[in-house]
Amino acid sequence: MPDHSYRMDLMGHAKLADTSPIVAGSWTNFTLIYTAGKFGIDDLGSVRVAMRTHSDMTPLQTTDPKAPGYLTVEASNGAPLEYRFDYKRNIRPWGNCITVLCKGFLRPNDTLTFRIGDSRQGCPGVRMQTHCESAFQFRVTVDAFASVDYTPVLEEHQPTVTIIPGPPVVWKALLPTLRRPGEPFRLIIKAEDRWGNPSDQFDGSLRLKAKPQIDGLPSSVTLARGQFSTIVDELTLDVQGDYTVEVFDGDTLHATSNPLRIADSPFAHFWSDMHGQSGESIGTGTAREYFAFARDRSFIDITGHQANDFQVTDAFWDEINALAVEFNVEGKFLCLPGYEWSGNTGLGGDHNIWYRTEGRPIYRSSRALISDETRPETDCHDVKDLFDALLDEDVIVVPHVGGRFADVSYAHDARLEPSVEVHSSWGTFDWIVEQSLQNGHRIGIVAGSDGHKGRPGASYPGDAKFGSYGGLTCHLLPNLSRDALFEEFRRRHHYATTGVRLFLSTSLSFEEPARIFHRNPDFEPKSFVHHSKAIMGDIVRTQTDTARLDIEVSAPSPVERVDLFDGTTLLETIRPFTDADLGARLRIICKGQETWGRGRLVKWTGQARLSGANASRIAAVNYYNPDKQPKLTAPGIIDWVTVTTGGFSAIDVWLSRVDTNAKIEIETNLGTLKLAMSDIGVTPTVLECGGIDKTLSVQRLPEVFSDKRITVSRDIAIPKTGERAVFARVALEDGHIAWSSPIYVGRDTA
Q: Exposure of 402 by Cβ count < 10 A (0-12 exposed, 13-18 middle, 19+ buried)?
């Protein structure tokens, strides 16, 4: 339950010696002074100073005064103290915690001085957390009576500091991925610092160049210091095709936008990150800041808030609903009320809940961290009870893998659950898609961030337990409205990505009209239309023996491969190159996770040693920590440290000299690969390392990729019984991945 609230006004106060703003990810130190209140601190009483669980500030330590994170605590009256720093030994969300045990006592107005990153003996300080926060808090709680029952000091006496972005390092230009001829769109240009925070530190002009020409696009734009982005609105195009915009600072190319497809279509594309949390639960910042970031910093079209239900008070549930009303503007930005049902995995595990309208009940898995019971109990401790409670609600439910993972084999209701989440900041989890398909669930595939750093739609992992950039979902909608979103979501008309905005289309064409169902035919068998073409997510019944599968990709990075699946069976891997195109380029890949649950993170330490060959350069793929990039330490030696949580990290190595007997030895803490260079081909050579899909591998690639747009056509046989679940997984050169929702096709026997 929450901390005690007895006489918070008499528990003292705390302050920082310096409250100047700090740049995210920079090195600093803090002096925090706690002054005892009216009760003092009794003998064997204690004080805690805690930071949020998902802050990635340098972990503190008390043993090495010259190492980062050195912590000291002193009492003004000389009382002996014991102190330590622990992770997850305090009530959430304050899991990074200093605990000071007073071996004597403190009188009122005695002080404790905390030196965090104490530099007096050579400690370099602490590296500040890598994400921005308007009020980073050192939360002080007091056990004044030696009862091991902690009471916070008043909120106005809690010390805070503002964390601000650094200078721009990465520029991004964002366009929609699909619009109809004549339909207005906008171009967004923004910068990010080295840790992925939107940066407002640029002052100057940028030159724009469209390919092909976009009428009405200015030749340049200007940003002033303090401005996070610039938007060129009300652009239109009448000529169908693919368009990009390049952004230059002088003659230096800063960014190339994602491709925009202009085409006659019943749908446009709208991008969402509907899954994240703010500081009222386990995240960062306020819910208001969360929604504003999605709209004004990451520039997604659709968002939702997903606080853990056992931390959502009735008052906070009301606030989420009120903010959804305030931020939701049909046609411009959709904001959905919702929460995360956070039941234990054995009772179903994590599920996202989104309502179409505000004012609906919250059915909690528990009230573990809230005490209010101001409204009738609506708790649903088991996901099966949740499904029963939601059957009459206008709601969408999606199981996902977070701290807890959803057990899709335990319970599923196709009337409520149209899709599963394959990717988030926690990692990439193809296995939850596979388990759903093995169970016969007709699911679509979505992605989100599940971000805890207050950056929905642009959620970088930082330097802690998250291993991936947050995902996005592209929704195929006739217009940007809640009604359209819910209708097309339930028909699984969407695709998932690991955060990249690309154009992806999959369709099946039939020689004669087939039945395409509006809903799962197990429940609504008479709700269908006849059409000769089905798109991703559709459930189809046809009387023809074959159908034509068409896949089209237009991406900001070259395509490395397209994997074509029928359910859990890999039918074919399609590459836009042949063996003859392979060059003097290797890709070394660390991949996988330890378990399905919280202990999934894999720590890799590796070295590749070349003999009979030299490396001229290397490039990192999915290494999001700028302080932990792979290094070419000698012409034949590459060193790296990385983490994976279901996805992969890779190093591309370009070879400048390769003798006929050249070899490579790849040694990691989890296993070693030794190979002759001549034995390495485009199909990876894989060393199994245990865990779940935990592997070390190496493959050969072309020296240069060039195909950002590819099309694939295949004839698909229609089975006489059962159905096929046909979908594509697209891998790009830069490490991003996209998944189309399956098309479920079978023989029409009606």
A: buried
